[in-house]
Specification:
Radius of gyration: 20 Å
Distance between the termini: 73 Å
Number of strands: 12
Largest sheet: 12 strands, mixed
Strand content: over 45%
Structural class: alpha+beta
Number of helices: 2
Shape: globular
């Protein structure tokens, strides 16, 4: 008789864990932003695979955006930040966290080569010190809301 309550508790815990798995999986695959305007050749490298970017398509933390000689694209992150990637560019969304409830988060963009323009959204206005862009030779800390960064190899 004393084992029955323990068994029911164990079953309840397993059930709760199984019910939480889709939420955990969804959070891991959640979009950080959406492509809006694309011109020419623009691709996304996700988990080592190159995929063509599409207007309305998602961008996730860890993705790389690569543009060709006549390519360019703009995307909007969840906090309203707009990133515009110029021709012959390679940009990683290295880190992106944004909580829509508290409006807190942080951004790390790595510009490998080319140009990127950033017009910050909510996070840039509330916590600009949590937005960073790195290049092969420098780290840019955001203090304004609209700027362009260029990196050459």
């Amino acid at each position: 008789m004393t084992r029955q309550p323990f068994t029911n508790l164990a079953h309840a815990m397993v059930l709760c864990a199984l019910l939480a798995l889709p939420a955990i999986s969804q959070a891991a695959n959640e979009r950080s932003g959406v492509f809006k305007n694309l011109e020419g050749e623009v691709s996304v490298i996700r988990a080592g695979k190159s995929l063509p970017a599409a207007s309305g398509g998602g961008l996730m933390e860890g993705d790389r955006v690569v543009t060709g000689a006549k390519g360019a694209g703009s995307l909007i992150l969840k906090d309203g930040t707009v990133l515009t990637v110029g021709p012959n560019s390679s940009v990683d969304l290295t880190h992106y966290i944004y909580d829509t409830t508290s409006q807190n988060g942080s951004v790390l963009v790595n510009l490998i080569q080319g140009t990127v323009r950033m017009v910050t959204g909510i996070m840039g206005k509330t916590n600009p010190e949590l937005i960073k862009i790195t290049t092969p030779t420098s780290v840019v800390g955001v203090r304004g809301t609209d700027f362009i960064v260029e990196a050459t190899q």
